[in-house]
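To close the section, here is one more complete example, presented without commentary so you can practise reading it yourself. The ligand is uracil.
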Amino acid sequence: MMRIDKFVSSQKAELSRSMVKELCKKGLVTVNGAVCKKSDAKIDPENAQVCIDGELITYRKHIYIMLNKPQGVVCSTRDGDSPTVLSLVPDHLLRDGLFPAGRLDKDTEGFVLITDDGELAHQMLAPKSHVPKKYAVTLEKPWQENYPELFKNGIVIDGDEECLPAEFVGDTIDAHKCTLVLHEGKFHQVKRMFHALDNKVVFLKRISIGNLALDENLPLGECLEILHKDVDKLLAN
Ligand code: URA
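Output:
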């Protein structure tokens, strides 16, 4: 059971608990069709039909947001000198406890998962989980014929750090372009792997996590809610 003010503000970050109290007093909150004047009334979050001014609140225990991160935005929850990924979440998807599950560099674009589900984030990011992450890469120098084999055998970065096998596919039309699938997430890994091959990443975009691809129609800087039926795809190997 949960207090109604807590329930509403957990689902709609734009409504604080004190705002919910006022709405209750005004008779604008109903529970299962009956007006609820008390903001400390307890409800069953999974089953109660709660409406605010006639609008039904659909309860979601957790929320999963796909962001197409632009360059210049940082994957942290706190404000520093640069905008954070959370500043790009629109009001209707905002709620307490959101955080980016995994990091992209400030100059990397693409798929960032933003959620309030710590359990899923842990499963996705745990070193043992090996959830694949696919990147579109543009290189300073053309890729070489031996790259697929080198990535398959495991690149050694900075002299002694061994990487798991990764899948490299070179673009046959533009030799500066390729995709790379990693099954782990070391710091600056893609950039450091190509550096170990005496090449340089000039543009990087994450295009999928697990079995879920970044929506091609999602503009840079915009978010969409991942449907519950697609959430498991984030963990698919
Ligand atoms: N590898 C990198 O080098 N940077 C990223 O942002 C992600 C993977």
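Once you have examined the tokens, check your reading against these statements. DSSP finds six helices and 17 strands in the chain. The first helix runs from residue 4 to 11.
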